[in-house]
Structure formats: C-alpha cells, structure tokens
Amino acid sequence: MRAVQITEFGGPEVLRLVELPDPVAQPGQLLIEVDAIGVNYADTHAVEDSYLSSSTLPMVPGGEVVGRTADGRRVVALTATGGYAERAVAWEPMALDVPDGVSDAAALALVVQGLTAWNLLRTSAKLAPGESVVVHAAAGGTGSLAVQLAKRFGAGRVIATASTKEKRELALELGADVAVEAEGEGLKERLVEANGGKKVDIVLEMTGGPVFDASLAALAPFGRLVAYGMASRTAPQPIVAASLMARSRAVVGFWLMHCLGRPELHAEPMAELLRLVAQGELRPLTGEAYPLSEVARAHEDLRARRTTGKLVLDPRG
C-alpha cells in the first residue's frame, strides 16, 4: 500500500511517500480501507518529536481516518499512528459509525477537533450560562467548532481571535459576538475591551508564549484558562502559585488522550456532535483536500497558518 513514512525527525521535508505492507488487524482491531485522512497540528509536532508523547522511528504519522471496514461499515476512527496510508487499523472502541449526511471531511473535523472543543468547554472550563469565552485561532478546526458550541452551551459573550481580517469575519459568521487580532502588543486590553470593559471568564488557548501571558492577565476572578496546545512553539512565562491565588484564577491543561476510553468524554459527545452535524445544527469548517503525495505542502501550510478549517489528505492522490 502507499503510505507516508518518516525515518528521521524534522519538518515537512522528512515526510516521504513509500510502499509498505498492509497493516494486519489484531484481535479487537478493525482494518479500515481509508477514504480520507485528517491532518492535525499535533501531527507536525509528532513528526519533529516535540509532542506530549514521544514518537518512534520509523513511523507512519496520522491519527484519524474515515473509511470502510471489511463488513461495509463507514467509520471515523482514531489511530495511535498509521493514518497517513491507504489502509489503517484502529481499536474497535475508537471507531464510530458515520451517519448519512455527514461528509468524510466533516466527520474528520469532529473526531479530534470537535471532541477537543466539546471537552474544553464542558469538562475543563466547566462553562456556566452567561460566562464570557475567548476562543483563540477561532477560524481553525477546533476554534471554529468551539465558537459554535460555546454559543450553544449558553456563553454570554464569545470573543474570537484570528490572524487575518478574513478569518475574523468568518468567526463572526460562525456566531462570535466580536473578533479581534490576537498578535502584537495590547492583546490583554483588546480582550477586556471586547468584553465590555470587564475581564473574561474563560480562555481557550493553544498558542503559548505572549498570547498565553496576555490571556492569563485578562482573566477575571474565578476565571479559567484552558491550555491545549503550543502552536507558537514558545513557552509562556512561568506561573507562580501566588499569582493565581491573588486573583483567584485557574490554569487548566487539556490533552484529548485522557478522554479516550471514557464513554462520557468520548463516545457520547462524539455521537452528539455527529447528530448535530447531520441535523445541520453544527457546521464543521472543511479546508483544503491535499493528495497524499503532497502531504509536505499540507504540513507547510498548516505551520504557516495559511489554512482555514479541517485539512484532509486523499489517499488516492
């Protein structure tokens, strides 16, 4: 089968299209004939071995696929690795049936980004009705769904940030009440101003560095900042316990891996998200579909923040 493999760690240049033997499903696993492959920002970290879990060489990257099982089921599945290929295996509990009316790209937008957005708001931030929510990277896969879900879950004010005017307009179209520029000096002040002059209750943060620092400074008493990424690859300033106590603020980390195997945090929310999409009540943003042979370009575009919505690889290309 055709697959993308890395034999050294690095940037997009280490991704190579090769021929490999088909994977073999072990007891409790499904062999999936892949129709579409999801690309996540975490994949760029895995390829350079800078993610939360270490990578092992040689490796076929990719953690999410849509395709058909041997008995004809159409499923969306999480895989530990091995997704960038024409065939992949997944543990049975990690594969969920895709309803009619939900496209491959939409299903892939939910299996990581949708579950992340749901759990950020429900599990980690514990959003209460009427609270203000800041969603950074609001035109991205997770951010665009978080904007919509925050409104659905009763947020009083949703403040989006994005890097371009076009992305900010998209966030407003998805339901954000206001959209501001995330980069540059004065982010804290822009967030407070966007919230009517009051500090904010919740921030969903995946950039790190100065964006994290400004977001923490913008938190109201009893506010929660949920950190779920470090796209800038820059660490924020160290956090001192006394600074949290002095303002009754909380910083919460989130990694989707800790939701897997817990039905109330994985299978049940995923079924809810798929149902909302099938009913037209939730709109996953689908971005460009790249041929598998152009996976390096997909990673380059993602790292350069040239993309909007969910990126997909076509294993036939």
The amount of helix comes to 25-40%
CATH superfamily (homologous) name of the largest domain: NAD(P)-binding Rossmann-like Domain
- Count the beta strands: 15
Measured by DSSP, the beta-strand proportion falls in 25-35%
CATH fold-level name of the largest domain: Rossmann fold
Largest sheet: 7 strands, mixed
Q: pLDDT below 50 for ≥5 consecutive residues: which ranges?
A: none
What is the N-to-C order of secondary-structure elements (H for helix, E for strand)? EEEHEEEEHEHEHEHEHEHEHEHE
| Radius of gyration from the alpha-carbon trace, in angstroms | 19 Å
CATH architecture call of the largest domain: 3-Layer(aba) Sandwich
Ends: how far apart?
13 Å
What count of structural domains? 2
What global shape is seen? globular
Brief sketch in words of this structure:
Helix 2 crosses helix 3. The protein has two domains: 2-97 and 285-314, Quinone Oxidoreductase, Chain A, domain 1; 113-258, NAD(P)-binding Rossmann-like Domain (Rossmann fold), CATH 3.40.50.720.
Description:
Strands 3, 4, 5, 6, 7, 14 and 15 form a seven-stranded mixed sheet that branches. The protein has nine helices and 15 strands. With 317 residues, it is an alpha/beta fold. The protein has two domains: 2-97 and 285-314, Alpha-Beta Complex (Quinone Oxidoreductase, Chain A, domain 1), CATH 3.90.180; 113-258, Rossmann fold. The protein has helices at residues 41-48, 104-124, 141-152, 165-173, 187-194, 209-217, 241-247, 267-278, 295-303, and strands at 2-5, 16-19, 29-39, 64-68, 74-78, 87-91, 95-97, 132-135, 157-162, 178-181, 200-205, 219-227, 250-253, 286-291, 310-314.
